Amino acid sequence: MSNIILNRRKLLIGSAALGSSLALSGCNQFDFLGQRGNPVRQALEQANVLTYRAQRALIGDQVLAREYSASEIRQGMKPNGSTEPMTPEYMFLKAQNFAPYKLTIKGMVEREVSFSLDELRNMPARSQITRHDCVEGWSCIAKWTGTALGPVLDMAGVKPGARFCVYHCFDNIQKTLSGDIFYYESSDLVDAYHPQTILSYGLNDQVLPVSNGAPVRLRIERALGYKQPKYLHTIELVDDLTPFGRGKGGYWPDNGYDWYGGI
Amino acid sequence: MTDVEKAPLAKGPLIYRQSVWTRVTHWVWAICLFFLLLSGLQIFNAHPALYIGQQSGFEFDNAVLEIGAVNTPEGPRGRTTVFGQTFDTTGVLGMSGTAEAPQYVGFPGAVTIPSFRDLATGRVVHFFFGWVFVGALFVWFLASFINGHLRRDIVPKGSDISGLPKDALDHARLKLHHGRRYSPLQKLSYFTVFFVLFPLIILTGLTMSPGMDAAWPWLLDIFGGRQTARTIHFGVMVLLVLFFVVHIVMVLLAGPLNELRSMVTGWYRTSPGTPAEAGDKP
Predict the structure, then answer these.
(1) ipTM of the assembly?
(2) Residues B88 and B144 grouped into a single domain
(3) Which of A165, A223, B132, B135 has the fewest CB atoms found within 10 Å of its own CB?
């Protein structure tokens, strides 16, 4: 018995020493978790899959995000990420006030369709005063006006096998030696067909400004800011996200952020 | 018989104090809270400011805490503003690291996971251990309800409330009793942690999820907005760190080996004079 206690004592003292040395030397020990593709990190990432499934099971597909009263708009919408794309294609469109702009729906659809800004503005409009939550932690309330994405997708006719929408954007968020990386995002069809998911062209009763994603920014109101792609030009219906970017379904997911973005 | 009365036992009986449910969940929480704290500070560093209300005031002021660095005639300094009071926190908050390689971050890399700025990884770590933490809490509540731990040791009774002043005095004099049951102060501390702090930190964490705000809009109402919830989440973290410090000090004062043994094996050596019961060991 005393032997067992002695061993236990040694074990306890040893683990206490280990614990305090861990704490004293800072947390460099866990820096390996920052390596994308590290197997331990990949195991921890499975919690995000659990979060996605749990929230999809818990939250009704049609349940709305909170909408606020006009008095809650107390400031301009804070621009973040790309605020002024400088690609020739975008500069050309901007110079002409986006008159030649077309939003294209393609991929796994019955017919590829394109809409000009005027055509989108002539579709039934929806305005919503919602809270934009950035992954960094801040929030900003603003009024977004646009047309619901669901009916637009229906005009193209989504094929039964399609599982995701990939949202392609004009902004080259990152320049690398091997060329520009363009912002893109994706969502499942639940988010795409959600009643508050709109192709927004208006912000706080004004035309959507360049810094906030002109001419069209998608709003997915039950997700974080990086799921609201700005400078949107093409929506592609797919059954697999791996061919795009680094295969994680978005610019920020490719950089280690969770794809679902509802938390 | 008379011999025993003349020479009281030098030790009280060894009692089986902690069930396996309590012991396993205790160490799971210890690991979880370590990772949750350090990954949480990493997440905080992505926007080192706290606000009251639904949103963050960029064109108006509703901040209660701001950590940052400013340029002064003497060079850059770390600066922290709490409730309108500004403090120079160079070396700890806002600016840390060495003179050759200063780091302009909220909390220093020594207390974040990873040690460098990496919000994405901080979130991966935080949400993984968040799930484990909540899972262990659920298991513990269920087991403790069934095995009576909650009723016996956690929820304070009338006698605990009336015994509180004497127990507080005894603790102040460092007269610690190793009884069969938790003392009134212990019960009150654990009750606060399990019934106030843990639920608060979980619910305010959920309030920061735009998905959960759609599912449970009352979250936004009970906490007064997403940004207030974020502030409360941070505040409860501070209280839990304080609890941890007191917890460790009390373990050291009360006899660390005996306390550790009870949380590893379940067996706890009571004070001399504790009446023995069936199932005790000498």
Answers:
(1) 0.91
(2) no
(3) B135
The four Cα atoms B47, B49, B53, B56 give a dihedral, to 10 degrees, of -50
Q: Are residues B233 and B191 in the same domain?
A: yes
Per-residue pLDDT tens over the stretch B7-35: 455 788 999 999 999 999 999 999 999 99
Is residue A100 within 8 Å of A38, Cβ to Cβ?
no
Q: Which structural domain, as residue segments, surrounds residue B93?
A: 49-106
What residues of chain B score a pLDDT lower than 70? 1-9
Largest CA distance in chain B: 82
Q: Which residues of A touch B65 (CB under 8 A)?
A: none
DSSP string, A31-76: GGGGSTT-HHHHHHHHHHHHHHHHHHHHS-TTPPPP---GGG--SP
Within a domain: residue B274?
Answer: no
Parts of chain A with a pLDDT under 50:
1-6
Nearest to A12 among B112, B128, B260 (CB): B260
CA–CA separation, B228 vs B220, rounded Å? 9
Distance between CA atoms of residues A206 and A125, nearest Å: 14
Q: Does A55 touch chain B (CB under 8 A)?
A: yes
Q: Closest partner residue to A33 among B125, B209, B265, by Cβ? A: B125
Residue B106 pLDDT: 96
Domain shared by B55 and B184, yes or no: no
